[in-house]
Batch of 2 targets.
Target 1
Amino acid sequence: MNIGHESVSEAPEVREISKSQLIRDFKKIGAKEGDCLGVALSFRSVGRVEGGPDAFIDALLDTIGPDGTLMMNSYTRFYQVPQIKSPRKGRIFDYRSTPTWTGLVPETFRKRPGTIRSRHPLSSIAATGKLAAYLTKGHDETASSYSPYSRLAKIDGKMLYIGLGNDLVSMRHEAQSLAGLLDVVPLEVGIYYQDGKGELKLFKSKDTYACIKKLKDFVPIIKNLGLVNDGMIGDAPSMLVPVRETLNAMTKLLKEDPTLNLCDNVTCIWCRELERRLNLYNTIRNPALFQRNRLAISLIALVNKHRLKGRHRGAYPIFKTIDLLDKVL
Ligand SMILES: [Zn+2]
């Protein structure tokens, strides 16, 4: 008896998801012909797609048709500015060739003929179709990091989030930006890049990185506003939202109450600096010890001042001290 052979023949067949099934799923969740559609996804959670990323992209393009526009982010790696010493091979952004870290589908999409990629050194986007030029134009080193999402809002675009849980990626950062929070903490990140004249320059950005842990909590709120279409794309629970209304709702929430952005991690430099710089302490509901004890607040401010300069030594003992205070006080 050949046990090995038997176990292979008895293995459950892996269902492949066809392009036509994907098109049905895209339509069912609310994507239509002529749509301006932004897509962010975990490709793995969709299941095994027959034809891989290319078939997946083809299915999206077939759904929105020749009058549609497809957009994905094609972000690239960044480094904390104090730690960037000199231009190093593999760490120089070139919008024509630098791969995106946002996944196999965006990377495949970026490389396709006809796809336009914007020139922002960290938060570039890739787009194809009728309004691709509008979405990418001017999004370079001088532009605000997530501004293409405001453009997507202007043209009544939709965002399709596939298998990402409650993470409204990218749009949440644009909401932080519109609410005036994104550049409050001068946590500079950057990379070397070649500018339009071919000159090598260091790009520094204060509006790329921000803490987003708490922004998942916005999803139930926008669901209550009736803005979310839930559905499945392959095996992945997914959401389709109108960008204009969703961005407006998230921005309004953050503007009215910036404390909604604050996570509860004492070591989160972004949230702890945001609450200090905007002096939010008196408006925080159920503040943690490190948000209500003056000594703890001063200690954190001191250690974060150094961390913002790229110096991390001494941070650990101070956070230990705050933990200790938490037990004593
Ligand atoms: Zn945080």
Target 2
Amino acid sequence: MNPEKTNTFRHAEMFGGRTHRAMPTSASNGGEIIFRPFDAANSGVRPPFSVRKLRHPLFSWFGLRPIIAQHTRAEHDALLRWVCDRRTVVEIGVAEGASACALREAMSPEGILYLIDPFHLSRVPLINTLRRAAHAAVAQFGACRVVWIEQFSQAAVGNWREPIDLLFIDGDHEESAVRKDWDDWSRFVVPGGVVLFHDARVFENGWPDLTYGPVRVVNRLFRDGEAIEWRIVEEADSLIVVERKEG
Ligand SMILES: C[S@@+](CC[C@H](N)C(=O)[O-])C[C@H]1O[C@@H](n2cnc3c(N)ncnc32)[C@H](O)[C@@H]1O
């Protein structure tokens, strides 16, 4: 699927302190997303009111501001392209749910989206606004079944048996944790299936540097030739997509 040619989702992009609707309105459920860069320190643009004052996930949960993505528009478009028509999709690290929205939007409606995040950082665990914001966000996009796994990925893999078509690694960013997610989960990815890593590439005006855990893991596995069954198929801002070779 080329998202530029579809009319099935709606998202917003921020320029010069304004939210600019870059895509047509979704035929589905009308969610709206603000992409990076929204940080004045990095981008030189003034963040919109919703980002400056309504940053808490409570405001997203109540629908008082758009969903704030931790990724760029180019990364979002790459997620949409690579998940298109895939049926068993796993995301490690959901947060407010912006990337999960992209996955659910474009994957097969007959598929299952597994979302793994312990949502452990809430100061009021009983209310857990981040988890509620994520559930509310994901409900606005796509149609497939969603299975929420509220565990650390290292624990969740103990019960995992399914072949995976697309795996998105965006949980704990410590180098050892990223490497463990790769070692634990990549063996379930089918030939022709893909793994996406976020914050895994140094790019112009971007935030990752060579010391970032995902950057180090990706460089060792795919640029230094450790993972010979895999090849890099796309690089978009901080996102790296690798495909398991067939045969
Ligand atoms: C960078 S955010 C994810 C952003 C999200 N993918 C997006 O683009 O909107 C990282 C998330 O990973 C979660 N997390 C941290 N360690 C984890 C682990 N071991 N397994 C699963 N999730 C984890 C955190 O709770 C946090 O919500």
